[in-house]
Design goal:
There is one protein chain. The chain is an all-beta fold. It is about 0% helix and about 50% strand. The model has no long low-confidence stretch (mean pLDDT about 90).
């Protein structure tokens, strides 16, 4: 549903814009899977109304870093590949719709420290 915008100034002048806003159902997150990972992890966010009234997800930020790729997005699921993180631990996930609507998920995802190789055996 949508509606008109009416602005009344202190002088009494009234200006009306017809059909300038649309009500969008509130985003609802049911799960983030897995609950943690490192660079290259494929993450699925599930819920309802995930496109913020739009047609697609234009950006996913994890701890302020853009996902390296958005694999798919729908009103009920967004699947992306975790980019190279700049921090570890609990980080927010920010979903941005092509309408500009944003939703921040907190407390549901941890960035793990990357693995390191200590030795290679046998050495050449």
């Amino acid at each position: 549903t949508g509606g008109n915008v009416v602005v009344t100034s202190n002088s009494g002048a009234v200006s009306t814009g017809l059909g300038l806003w649309t009500y969008v159902d509130r985003w609802s997150i049911t799960s983030v899977s897995p609950s943690g990972g490192q660079w290259g992890t494929i993450v699925t966010v599930s819920g309802q109304f995930l496109l913020g009234g739009g047609q697609s997800t234009s950006l996913v930020l994890v701890g302020g870093v853009a996902a390296s790729q958005i694999l798919s997005s729908s009103a009920t699921s967004i699947v992306f590949v975790l980019g190279v993180p700049n921090s570890t631990g609990a980080v927010p996930i920010v979903l941005v719709s092509d309408t500009g609507a944003t939703y921040t998920i907190t407390g549901q995802f941890n960035v793990d420290a990357g693995s390191t190789i200590a030795t290679v055996s046998p050495s050449l």
